[in-house]
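Batch manifest, entry 17 of 40.
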Amino acid sequence: MSQATRRYTLTAIALHWLLAIGILGAFAVGLYVDDLPFSPAKLKLINWHKWAGVTILALSVLRLLWRLTHRPPALPARIEAAMPRWQRAAHHGTHHLMYLLFFAVPLLGWAYSSAKGFPIVWFGVLPLPDWVPVSDDLAAVLKPLHALAAWGLIGLVAVHVAAALKHQFIDRDGLLDRMRPGRA
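Output type: structure tokens
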């Protein structure tokens, strides 16, 4: 198998890293803004958080469409053979759950914003429709669900990063090179 067929496509690599940066940034802003007193600065950061969430949702759609139309490279046979069954199951399960949460987290946030009656105007230009009715009771359910899903996603990201670092520094099997930008 050639090196090129063992690597992800440049598009897949770009979407991976853009989503990684977006998810970590949106999570950090969400944590930070939650404890701020009400102010113009808080409103500005909330809007940035919403814009990041919508961007993450759009990138997730692109990433899923790309993944469905461009098969990812198989794990190298020597790596797959060395992995116990539970690690292969964790590998696949973690990826599937991350994809689910790529969509669930921003959709729950959007629903919460709609339920609170706060519109989302993407980058201050494109107004997005509210897709749930204004309801304080619904908002009270959606806010903790959004937070729980975000923490779940960050937990899975941590597992994903830990596994990549294990492969890089303990196993030294080159698996991380498949997703590294600029490495041929």
